[in-house]
Design goal:
With about 500 residues, this protein is of the alpha+beta class. The strands form 5 sheets. Strands 4, 15, 16, 17, 18, 19, 20, 21 and 22 form a 9-stranded mixed sheet that branches. Strands 5-8-9-10-11-12-13-14 form an 8-stranded antiparallel barrel. Helix 5 crosses helix 7. It is globular and about 70 Å long.
Length: about 500
Amino acid sequence: MRIKYSLCALTAAALCLSATGCWFDAKSDQLVDHFFQLGNAEDGAHVRVSESEASAYLDDPYTAFSGYNCTQESFFGKYCMQGTDNTVLPDEIRDAFLQDREYINITGTTTRISAVPYRIDFGPHCNVTPLNYLSGYLWAQMYFYDSHGEPVQVQAAYTVQDNTISFRLIRDFSFDSKASTLDYSFSGNTMQFGFTLDQNGMKLSCQDGEVTLVPMDLIGDDAQINIYDAHPTQDSPVLDGIETINITPDSQYVIVDGVQCAVTGYEADPDGLFRMKWNVGGEHHAIQMAFLYGDDNGIILLDGENVYNYTHRSKDLYTKQVTTNLRVADTEQLSNLSDAELEALQTNIGQLYTELENAFAQAGVAATVNRDTGEVSLDSVVLFQFDKYTITPEGEQMLRLFLQAYTSVVFSEKYSGMISEIEIEGHTDPTGLIYHNQVLSQARAEQVMAFCQSTGNGLTTDATARLAPMLSAVGYAADHPVFDANGQVDYVASRRVSFRFVMDLGAINAQ
């Protein structure tokens, strides 16, 4: 399948490592690599933190990870096999990796790749790609060897459910910045691995093999921490008032309640504990916690009860709920806006969501507004019969009420000219064949679009004439499932049709 986005919403060396600790050689039980900070330290090589002086203190990282439910953000960072030399393996390690290796075909190509990767870069700042402009996906750059012993890099959209991580491989993609288009196609391959992710790194396993990967920055003689401008995510608690963590070889500080404070000591311990000391107004502070190192995407800290997710940069705080409602070209321009302009943009979109929710409530319309994904969703169970794409009479009546409430907001004087496109998305649950779900979701989206453009949609002739050219339809099959509070797929909520508005950045800034 090839999807074109134009003005659309924005998108045996290592294997002998111990399964219980990837920092140890399985044969000798000797520590292979230490990793410590290159900056300030106390007591020589280590930063010492006592329980009495720490605001958050953990003796054993296993206690924090035992009850931790991994999310997509948990994997942020660059993970590789021990011994990886940047993007390739040294000959000896490569030969051991390839020995008796199973291979899979990438559908639609002549490429056969190893059944397990030797390196993966997760997250928008570790895997810098135009694919990050696409809303609803998180991307990983995966590194394999092909059947001829040559390295191969593949982009993949990844999802996490329970103890399984799934990668949907991209066959190819191209980005035209001048035309503001992303042209990409999935290969049809989905790789699934059971995983463990903790202080020992990441272990992936499937029926064709297994591999243990470790954070790249934290191994080898030149190991160093590099956490740049890391902020807590919107749903994360804030640790000791810390708004920013910045620990690089050249600069070590935290920002606490708007004040920059020097970090006086820090360390990422091989046993899986992160220690940090800092001073606020002459007062000494310290922490010792379990951690997941996100490299250019920050750090996740765990104290056994709370998860402190410092994986967003300052402008990400403003753009997280904005990029899903912008053109590709406009998303590129966000970096040129001031913080005040970004905050105004986020405020405009947030107010629009709120007014939509109020309009739906007054009209008695059961529409779900998801501010994280930019979706305004309707239940497919009401719109369609099972496995069908013809809209039911009940579904038509719901669409009439929905469109009246929806257009009363997006076509109001307040938002005049701000909405440039409305994409109608079809979604299925993860059951069934991928191809069948793709055809069904596309047909449902197109049927809803046709109804919205028809004379029986409940709108005035003028409103329909305004709405019709703004609409486009796309089927996503089960690419974007809905998860419940326990991280399980909500099959009913996943079967939906969504409306996603695209805002004109130029029109917003002109106001």
